[in-house]
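Re: your question about histidine kinase

S., sorry for the slow reply, the queue was backed up all week. Below is exactly what I fed in.
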Amino acid sequence: MPSGPPAARRQRLFLVVAAVVAAALFVLFWALLASSLPATTRADVSALGLLVAGLLATASTANRARWSSGGRRRAWRLLSLAGLTALSGNVASALLRAPGSEGTAPVGDVAIAVALLLSIASLATFTQVTRSRVDLAVMALDGLILGAAVLMIAASLVYDQLLDSGNNVSLLAGAVIPILDVVLATVALILLRRTRGPDRVALGLVAAGFIVYTMTDLGYAVRVAAGTFEFGSLLDLGWISGYLLLALAAWWPTRVSDVTREDGVAGAEDWDTAVVFGVLLVATMVEVMGNGAGGLLSIEAFLWFLLIGGAGVRQGLIARDNRDLRRNLEEQVRERTADLGQMARETEVLLSSVADGIYGVDLDGRVTFVNPSGAQMLGYAVDDLAGQLAHDVFHAPDEDGHPYPAQDCYIADAVLLRRVSNGEEDRYVRADGAVFPVEITASPLVDDDTGEVRGGVVVFRDITSRQEVERVKNEFLSVVSHELRTPLTSIRGSLGLLSGGVMGDLPEQAASMVDRALMSSERLTRMINDILDLERIESGTLALEVQPHDVGDLLAIADREMEGLATSRDVRLVRHVDCPARVLADHDRIVQALTNLIGNAVKFSPPGSVVELDARLVDGDVEIQVRDRGRGIPDDRLDTIFDRFVQVDSSDMRREGGSGLGLAICRGIVERHGGRVWLESEVGVGTTAHLCLRSAPELAPLTGPSATSP
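Result:
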């Protein structure tokens, strides 16, 4: 029963105290006054005590049922109905019993039998186990052991005397009711054995009440069979005590703190072991005493006590050790669960607060989770995407409307090949059909224990704004560059004329200023041309005239164009070209890419050093190498050195006069040819630039008369 408000608690406490005081007064009555009173008076007092105790138990269990729920409510209702049935039978028996006769009338025996059946059903409801087969097996074994022990006690104390009795006893009183008493005692012991949780004390009192009631019933059956039963004797205290224990159990408060000490239903405890082996020990004592041959003082009795007692102590120690071990494990599980719960909450907060979209997939590519930002970007609710195939739901088709193959998707690469995709661009489809560009990072989810892939995680970011900014910037640079070229051409031409002496000889100071202005205009022209070239490359409008060209000729032209720069820097250009192959390329653009690579090598080489030019055939392609002995490039800059406006050192742009676009243009030109360019470098040793192009097919030699001299 819940604790309730203070007034209700005080009321329950008053009722409990009243029941205890009534029981004490009744015991005092039997101890001091009963022997001096007539038999009829003692019988009336016993009848009154039974009536009051029975009414109190019936009303208390009915009230407890009102406060309970589920199976507990049914059990308390059955208890209340059993008490009402027993009371009705007692009243009917008292009214129908002939004057001067002992025992109960047949209607009373029937009511007692029905009440016992209801009580057994109630206790069985209390002991219901629905957790596992192990629990059911443990309960069955409990019933077998405890039932056998109770039957041993009943057989020695009751059934032998019933069989030896010469009096005529009804079938109900002499057989059925004692059997039901044995079953009731067994189920009560099982309940006592399995009492756990917040109802521990209350159910223990219920079990104790029925055990007392059962033992009193068995004693009653023996006395009736022997013809010595007298209503109003001390035996009546057993029934009254049983009723009072039931009433006390119904009013016993349930504390919320008891729930935290829940030990579980399955698993032996030291208390459980004590109950089982205690009943076995009592049964053994009764059996030994009933068989004579020395009784309790015989060697056989001693050996039985030693055997059962030793087994009980051993099992108790094991049970205590198992209990401590389980509690430690449960404590560790609670701590780990709390830690995992905290980590889960932190992860949930982290995923919810990230602006980027994040979703996970299983081995089949189905969405297992998605954060709110990702679901919002895709136009779905979080729950709508669970279980959907990510590739089919929001991966956009190509520009022609054809879906991309799922096996070529970065999700498949992460899940099947354990490949990490970083910085890839893709297009996603929102729920309303709108397509938007994203940048993704896909990684596999690997189990640390087994090393197996359990799925993948994809992080994506909407780059619509970034692409728009890039487009506006490129358009701005293109427009500005085109608009600057016309006036810059005029300025450069005018400065060239002045420097050439068209207007006559200039003073030395003026001539120096004109030369510097001319050099600056030429540098600005180169920068504008680089910007325009890069804009054409990125927009895909760079026109190429691809024809076969000899590799040696291309390197020779680039060598001649960069000879002046190399001489001014005291750097020698050395060509080692033994490759007779030709490449398919646009002559001017490849020479432009080579001069960019050679120019960088010359600029960053120390005076007196050598820049080597070489070419070779590699798997049918032509690989051109530009090797210097400069300061080298750190490993963490090799991936970004081909980006726009990027140099190894920011001071290089000011000191060397570069724009930071040369390598970006070089990569764009080479990739437009279907080739690739990369750098290998070691700090303090030098850098080697590799430019790889497709080789041109060899021309078939001429045969026949036309191929010979006349």
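Residues 536 and 542 are 5 Å apart (CA to CA). The first helix runs from residue 6 to 32.

Happy to talk it through on Thursday.
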